[in-house]
Amino acid sequence: MPKLIQVKSLYTITLKQVNSILCELAQNEQCSPDTVTWIKSHLHGNIREQLLAQFNQWHLPYNFNYMKCVIDCSLKSIVLNECLSNRAMTGLNYIEFMKYLHEQNICNLCNFSLHFKKYLLETAKLKEGNYYLCLSLNNGMARNLTTVVLPYVADNSVLKCLGQHCTQLVYLDIANSWNIDEDGIFNLLFKKYLLETAKLKEGNYYLCLSLNNGMARNLTTVVLPYVADNSVLKCLGQHCTQLVYLDIANSWNIDEDGIFNLLFKPYNFNLLWIHQHCPLLQDLTACVMVPEEARSLLPPMSALRSAALTLNSEHTLLAVFQMLPCALQLTT
Prior knowledge:
Blueprint: H1 7-27, H2 33-42, H3 45-57, H4 64-70, E1 77-80, H5 91-103, E2 111-114, H6 123-141, E3 147-149, H7 156-165, E4 171-173, H8 182-189, H9 197-215, E5 221-223, H10 230-239, E6 245-247, H11 256-263, E7 269-270, H12 271-277, E8 283-289, E9 306-310, H13 317-323, E10 329-331
Parallel strand pairs: 1-2, 2-3, 3-4, 5-6, 7-8, 8-9, 9-10
Helix pairs in contact: 1-3, 1-4, 5-6, 6-7, 7-8, 9-10, 10-11
């Protein structure tokens, strides 16, 4: 009787034979576009993932022709362990590979791992390669990613794209990526804080115009995480009389003045206005704002003897003492 071979063993043997043929084709540079198309059309994506995993186990040098034969938009896992060896990608290889990924319009990928062991890429080539990687991430490749391994090669631009689009991300390895600083980490962690300060201010200027012109009249719910600032809170405090729910989480352009603007709506007076127009005032009870310009030394209100003030911040107390040197009673 002929020797019996288990189906699993037979499959493994066949897989090795197919992989050997692919490696030979790639090595001899016989991978014409028609050949690549034929291979991909006859080998299911799952099979090509197994071929790639087997290729990694063989510790063969990186070969772009081989990558073209097995990688396309149908793959859910792209893991390149050959980056661990001394025969890893060069800078030009990295650019070529990332450009190819972008051309494939990959959008089903769950695991993207390039296991670099050494920093071998020149900075200029690394940036160009990451430019194409960011294009891929922005065009849908990041949508289903749960695992990303990019030691030595990640930079701020890559982290920004991951923060914007990788909503399923569970595992990230960016060890020894020296082109990352605190801005890159911030973009990754605070994935919705994406607006430049100048553009944020311009957008909030038009928002305030809308609030002042009647948009705020019937608002009961306002959700503005990451983007609200003092000017927006001032308008909300003045005009949103029906406000029930407000979310301004992680809006880093808000300080104690902004919160005061919101809670004490509106101010009775600006203390600087009182200073200029009521020089003979002796008794004052009010919710007042002390603006930045009042925090420097100003001519005192010498007539004021009693003041009960709600101030917009602790930092304004010194300015109040400077403006009211003759006050016999001051309640804040």
